[in-house]
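anyone seen this seq b4? input:
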Amino acid sequence: MSTWRVRREGSPTVVEMPSAQAVADGLRDGVWSGEDEVRGPDDRDWQSLEDHPQFAEIVAELEPPAPPPEDEARLDMNPLIDVALVLLIFFILTASYATLRRSIDLPEGPSDDKGKTTKPIPKEDIRERVFKVKVFLGDDGGVLVQVEDKTVTLAEAEREITATVKGTGKREMYLDVASDVPWGAEAQIYDIAKGLEIRQIYLANKK
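predicted toks r here
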């Protein structure tokens, strides 16, 4: 009976097998791997089982199948889902904040027995607190400013308004600007009022 010798790869220990069939059975049972070396009765040198002509086909059958190639056309949707979730959370928080701002209750004014929330201000109090300023165009097209009962040019308006504020102590202005007055002239009146620390400006109803 021919004897086959098998050893682990690089191992000096040799196991003798009675036949090639016994070696093949050891391969199928997992005793040997394709890297282990075998030497038959007619072989001059040691060979790995996967390279030996009698066992190469068996080793090929026992090797696990190669994984399928990765599909390069496949799209990874995870980053897109993450970005969509972040945007969704951002929009939810923004909408919640806007809703919260709209839902803030304003304090109610004091009400009297008749359910009114404001009380009328007597005309005497208005006269004590408010001075009148009227801005209009003269016959020559120049801008004129009437402070109380005195009419001056736009260049003299600051001096006249300052004298009125200091003389009367009034810090509220009733401003009536004609529709044909340039915006620059009206803005100059606002600048004068700001410099004099006018607390309130009441605009005349254009209607």
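The longest helix spans residues 78-102. The first strand starts at residue 4 and ends at 7. kinda curious what u guys think
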